[in-house]
Write a structure and sequence with these properties.
Blueprint (H helix, E strand, L loop, with lengths): L9 E5 L7 H11 L3 E5 L2 H6 L2 H8 L2 E2 L7 H15 L3 E6 L5 H4 L9 H24 L3 E11 L13 H23 L2 E7 L13 H11 L7 H12 L10 E4 L10 H6 L1
Parallel strand pairs: 1-2, 1-4, 2-3, 4-5, 5-6, 6-7
Helix pairs in contact: 1-3, 1-9, 4-6, 6-7
C-alpha cells in the first residue's frame, strides 16, 4: 500500500545492481510512493547487473557515471535535472567496494593502492556527489541525501577489513557536509547504518553467513531486510523528517544497543 509520500518529488538513485540490492528495493519503493528518478551506476557495474530491467519497471532513465569522477558526477547532476524537469529532492548513495576484501588481503596486510581505490569508491565518492549537487545548486529546499553505512564504523568486525574505515569516513562526510548543506540550502544529509543484509556486495565479506545469523540472534527485532531499509529510506526522503540531518541512524533491529541476547548466551 502506497501513501504518496514522494508524489511530485524527483531524485537520483546510485548503486542498483540486482533484485537483492537495497538501492533496487528503494527504487521500487520510491516509484510506488509517487517519486520519479534517474538511475545511475558505474559502467562496469551496469554490465554485471540488471539495471535495464529496473529502469523499464519504474519508467526511469539510466545515466552511467563513475562516482569517483567529478566530471561524470557533474554531468549526471545536470542531465538528471534536465530529464526530471527540475531540481532534485532526494538522492541515495548506495556504493561500496573494497579491493582488499575482493583480493583476500588481511587488514594487517593491506595493499595501499587497493585501499585508496576502495576509499575513493566507498567514501570519498559521497563527498564528490554532495559537492557536485551543492555547486550546481541542484537540490530543492528540504531535499534529502542518504548514504548507506554499517556499524563497523563504530565497532570492530575483523573480516569487514578496510570497509570499516571507509564507512567511518562516509559518516563523517555526512556530518560535515550536512552542516553546510543545511545551513545554506536547507538540505538534509544522513546515513543509515543497516543490519548485515544479503546483497551481492554483502556476501563478498568473509564469514558473512555466520555473522548474519549471529546478528539475527542478537537483535531483539531481528535483522532488517533490504526492503525494510528501503521503507526507512523513504521516510527520510519524505517531508515527514524535515528536521533530521547530520545523523547516523541505526536500522538494525536493536543490534546496536544490545550487549548480549539470551539466544547468544545459550549458544555459547
Amino acid at each position: 500500500m502506497g501513501y504518496n509520500l514522494l508524489k511530485g518529488k524527483r531524485g537520483i538513485i546510485f548503486g542498483a545492481l540486482d533484485e537483492s540490492s537495497i538501492a533496487w528495493k528503494t527504487a521500487q519503493t520510491v516509484h510506488a510512493e509517487g517519486g520519479t528518478f534517474v538511475l545511475t551506476n558505474a559502467p562496469i557495474a551496469m554490465r554485471m547487473g540488471q539495471i535495464d530491467q529496473l529502469a523499464k519497471e519504474t519508467g526511469s532513465e539510466i545515466i552511467p557515471a563513475d562516482a569517483t569522477s567529478v566530471e561524470d558526477l557533474d554531468n549526471l547532476v545536470a542531465k538528471a535535472v534536465e530529464i526530471l524537469g527540475g531540481k532534485i529532492d532526494f538522492v541515495l548513495h548506495s556504493i561500496g567496494m573494497s579491493v582488499n576484501v575482493r583480493k583476500g588481503r588481511a587488514y594487517t596486510d593491506e595493499k595501499y593502492d587497493f585501499t585508496a581505490k576502495g576509499w575513493d569508491v566507498s567514501a570519498l565518492s559521497f563527498h564528490k556527489v554532495l559537492q557536485s549537487l551543492y555547486k550546481a545548486d541542484a537540490m530543492n529546499e528540504w531535499g534529502s541525501v542518504v548514504a548507506l553505512t554499517y556499524m563497523a564504523a563504530q565497532r570492530t568486525f575483523p573480516d569487514y577489513n578496510d570497509m570499516a574505515d571507509n564507512k567511518a569516513y562516509l559518516e563523517s562526510v555526512a556530518r560535515s557536509f550536512g552542516y553546510f548543506f543545511g545551513k545554506e540550502k536547507n538540505v538534509r544529509v544522513n546515513t543509515i547504518s543497516q543490519s548485515p543484509t544479503a546483497t551481492t556486495a554483502g556476501q563478498g565479506v568473509k564469514g558473512f553467513d555466520g555473522f548474519i545469523s549471529y546478528a539475527e540472534k542478537m537483535s531483539p527485532l531481528g535483522n532488517a531486510s533490504a526492503q525494510d531499509c528501503a521503507d526507512y529510506t523513504i521516510t527520510l526522503f519524505s517531508d515527514l523528517t524535515r528536521k533530521v540531518t547530520m545523523q547516523n541512524l541505526f536500522h538494525d533491529g536493536g543490534f546496536s544497543n544490545t550487549g548480549v541476547s539470551q539466544e547468544v548466551i545459550e549458544k555459547f
